[in-house]
Amino acid sequence: MSESFTHCVLPYDRVDDLLDGALPFLRDGAEAGDRVLAVCGIAREMLLREALGPTAASVEFVEPGTWYSHPARTLADCLSDADDIAWHGRRLRVLGEPVVWASRPPLEVLEWQRVEAMVNIAFRGTGAAIMCPYSSSLPAGVVAAGRRTHPETVRGARSIANPLYMDPWAYSAQCDGEPLPPPPGDADELEIDRPDLFWLRAYVTEYARRTPLPDEDLQRLLVAVTEVVTNALRHGAPPIMLRMWTEPSGRDPALVCEVTDRGSWEPGSGYGLVPPRPSGTATGGRFGLWAVRLLCSIVQIRTGRGGSTVRLRLRLPAVPAAVNGV
Questions:
Q1: Do residues 12 and 133 touch, judged by C-beta distance below 8 A?
Q2: Would the N or C end of the chain have less CB density within 10 A of its end CB?
Q3: Contact, 39 vs 67, CB < 8 A?
Q4: Burial class (CB in 10 A: 0-12, 13-18, 19+), 147
Q5: Gap between the Cα atoms of 101 and 118, Å rounded
């Protein structure tokens, strides 16, 4: 694969500005024999199909709700596609607009913004091309983050270096700048003083059964907690505490599982933010923590002189409101 990886932001106010940047990107890919994806809603799809004409037949249109289903899983799937396509001498080209994820709960939006930054590390050596249109109608914070997570800005058919672009690791550290809110006073708590994973899993299962967490997600949680606790036992310092609670209010109810210890992580640990790569490609993160991110809705990590905290969140299904007191 001779092309270098590119990741561009396309800021736009009007539809014409969007088309001026997106159409050359899609057409160039079609003419080069790339695998070309356009992640957009039906209105944008109709607009692009009409403007592209016969070229639209070479573009795969993807429903954004499916594509933007989970930050880590989308990153993993897209990277796997890019590697596979590059292996066959072609290029993956993706046009993806963040309209869907930009309206989701704040913690999820933050993780999508972090993914936008980590893409610049994970996709090195793939030769992929990614363009992300950011409408000025998006929340101001989302637009500002887009300018910090893309090395290049598109103006019409040309791209220029983005002066606001931040180093991905510095941007990720900024995402974790705020301390985590403390657990609620009624959180369940268990001190872990020996590597007895049977009782740990039994404890987590018993608590999770009191919530509407689906069985499939419970199995994911058990694997994730086992990985995090094992890591704390091997590399952390006592006391190692496990806490569990639910956050049922608002539009993002969740089961939360937190593991804390008195140890701190070495600089450059990676926090499992970058998918492991095949031998000979760009360096990835630790597989264990990356797997944890794949398994959970949100993973939050804080570490420093006071110790380390890994907080796992799994989304809970909404419980229908009671009717007539039933």
A1: yes
A2: C
A3: yes
A4: middle
A5: 16
Question: Does residue 238 share a domain with residue 308?
Answer: yes
Residue in the block written with tokens 């887009």: 146
Residue 320 placed within a domain: no
- 208: number of Cβ within 10 Å: 23
How many other CB atoms sit within 10 Å of the CB of residue 189?
12
Q: What is the pTM of this model?
A: 0.91
CA 111/CA 108 separation, integer angstroms: 5
Return the amino acid letter for 276.
P
Q: Which two tokens stand for residue 140?
A: 């101001």
CB distance 254 to 246 below 8 Å: yes
**Rounded distance between C-alpha atoms, residue 139 and residue 300, angstroms:** 23
Query: pLDDT digit string (tens) for 240-263?
Result: 999 999 998 667 899 999 999 998
Same domain, 129 and 193: no
User: Which residues make Cβ contacts (< 8 Å) with residue 141, sequence separation at least 6?
Assistant: none
- Two tokens, residue 92: 């993956």
Domain-embedded: residue 183: no
Look-up of token digits 């910090």: 148
Q: What is the CATH number of the domain that holds 119?
A: 3.40.50.300
Integer-rounded Cα radius of gyration of the chain: 22
d(CA 45, CA 49): 6
